Amino acid sequence: MLARTALAAITRRPAAFLRSSWPWRSLAYLLCSAVHAVAACVTIYAAYAYGVGLATAGAVLAVAVLTLPAAAFERWRLRLVDRAPAGDPHVKPPRPGVRAWLATRLREQATWRELGFTVVAVSVLWLMDLGMVSSALWLPLLLMSGPFQPSMTPVDGLPLFAAGLLLIPLFAYLVAAWAGCRALITRAVLAPGDAEIIRSRARLVDAFEAERRRIERDLHDGAQQRLVSLSMKLGLARLDLPPGSPAEAQLAEAHEEAKRALAELRELIRGVHPQVLTDRGLGAAVHDVAGRSPVPVDVDVSLPGRLPAPIEVTAYYVVSEAMANIAKHSRARRGFVYGRLHDGALVLEVGDDGVGGADPAAGSGLSGLADRVAVTDGVLTLSSPPGGPTSLRVEIPCPRSE
Question: CA-CA distance, 337 to 360, in Å (whole number)?
Fold first, then answer.
């Protein structure tokens, strides 16, 4: 399945984990602690050169000034081992009010947490990070250098070389495990509200989904059936009137209006929750959306079977919103939709050859899609440079199909 964190990645099959980028991402994450190592070494040198008192005063001043940049750096490098972005409590809300007051309180609390974490990172954590990296790199390399040591023959050094090779995968797991644990500590201290935000989003999406299905049932079983009955009665009434008479002409016009209203209602019901998605699955629903798009769309969606319902619904609305954006904003001549199950994850890509420049903050619905995808532990990435082309890629963990 698609791993969101380094800790989740180490639960995958060994071959999949070792071939992935997670060991390298974890190594890069730990190597970033060299910044803290430099700060600690500068403090030690100042204490030796200028005395403990002056060095301590300088260190306290430096920590006070650099706490916020250090916390921002920690949140930035967290993305190496945790795909979910860490919220920044220092981003001010756009409007005053209760939300602004609450954000101010959270910023005050976050500053103290950041101060404490910076002190711990500079004094302790960098030693653990770089110590783990040193063990992961130098011990296997030292053993693998056995055949080339002048004190032993190449034959005598072969067992050491083999032991070094065997230690490389083991230490890849150790590096990823420690990087994942350190990331959990960092997120718990510097972004403690993120997990609750994700849970709140999930509750909202579930409530919205239940309400949307209720509306779809009411429209399908109520208003649509009444319009069908009205259309049939108008058609039967036309048969009792002389052809070409004024009353027959007005009744025919009313009959056509009823049929148009029924068609619009069916289109509305399809938008609320497409029946083809429920009956035939994601592949057929994507073909249905693409077939109704004013821009020609090439569809290449091949799935082995039905997916879990939440994943199908999320993927369907990603494609629907992307198709709507292509029709409204892209000025594209052609679009495409690609979908596959790859290594336990549903991979969807929607693109076009339009003018590009898509901006999630411009009200195109992309930020809402990102929230919906985040609820499923998925990842949404957008590439839309000015001039095009635009490509929207979604990866959603899908451990099994139904």
Answer: 20
pLDDT, greater one: 381 or 101: 381
**Count of beta carbons in the 10 Å neighbourhood of residue 222:** 10
Nearest alpha-carbon partner for 197 in 291, 323, 89: 89
HSE on the CB side for 384, CA within 13 Å? 25
Q: Domain 276-397, what fold?
A: Heat Shock Protein 90 (3.30.565)
pLDDT digits (tens, 9 = 90+) for 158-199: 777 787 778 788 888 889 999 999 988 888 787 765 554 555
Query: CB under 8 Å to 41, separation ≥6 — which residues?
Result: none
DSSP-derived pairing of the beta strands 297-302 and 335-342? parallel
How confident is the model over 220-229, as pLDDT tens digits? Answer: 566 667 777 7
